[in-house]
Design a protein that fits this description.
The protein folds into 2 domains: 30 residues; 162 residues, no CATH class. Helix content is 30%, strand content 32%. About 8% of the residues have low confidence. The structure holds zinc ion.
Length: 194
């Protein structure tokens, strides 16, 4: 009887360990996929500013698969349109006179044609790159700005929260002229300074 109890005890421990410890370890890995959370990297190099966003698609779109109907197709296009209008998403210090040079959007489950700027969305590249149902998916976006008066550049106001209500928090990292820093952004705290 004692041995049986001891056996049951260790079996329960094993179950608790496998249930409790494993998911925790996964959640703390860098780049873990958590809905509501995104990461932003800002790199300033002289007159050039590069901003990169990595986000679960759910934050931006409300679903994480290739569009299955016209309504979902339109949602993807509307999201892409907003992300291409980076001047309204990121307000760099006005005196620095920064101009958006390029924007690139990528997602494993969305066809490149759907993510292209409205002007050159050809039918040719409209086929999904992968069809993965019931799997999480992310979007990676990179914007390049060029500033006419880089010495005036002091920070950026991030307006992603206004455009995407699924976004609750952004872990931001800045690599700028004064070194590296990090900040947590939320709808109530949207400014990055460097
Ligand atoms: Zn997800």
């Amino acid at each position: 009887m004692k041995q049986l109890l001891r056996f049951m005890g260790s079996a329960v421990m094993a179950v608790m360990l496998s249930l409790g410890v494993m998911p925790l370890a996964g959640a703390h890995e860098p780049g873990a996929h958590v809905h509501g959370l995104a990461t932003l990297e800002v790199a300033i190099d002289g007159a050039a500013v590069q901003i990169s966003l990595d986000s679960p698609l759910d934050n931006l779109l409300g679903f994480e698969h290739a569009p299955r109907n016209e309504k979902e197709r339109q949602s993807v296009k509307a999201m892409a349109l907003k992300l291409h209008q980076a001047d309204t998403l990121f307000v760099l210090t006005p005196a620095a006179q920064c101009r958006l040079e390029s924007a690139r959007l990528e997602s494993a489950v969305l066809a490149p044609g759907l993510l292209a700027p409205a002007s050159d969305s050809g039918k040719s590249s409209d086929t999904p790159r992968a069809d993965s149902s019931d799997v999480h998916a992310e979007l990676a976006a990179t914007w390049h700005f060029q500033c006419a008066v880089p010495q005036a550049l002091q920070g950026v106001e991030v307006r992603l929260f206004q455009q995407f209500s699924g976004l609750k928090r952004i872990d931001a990292a800045v690599a700028g002229p004064k070194g590296q820093s990090s900040a947590k952004l939320s709808p109530k705290s949207t400014r990055l300074k460097w």
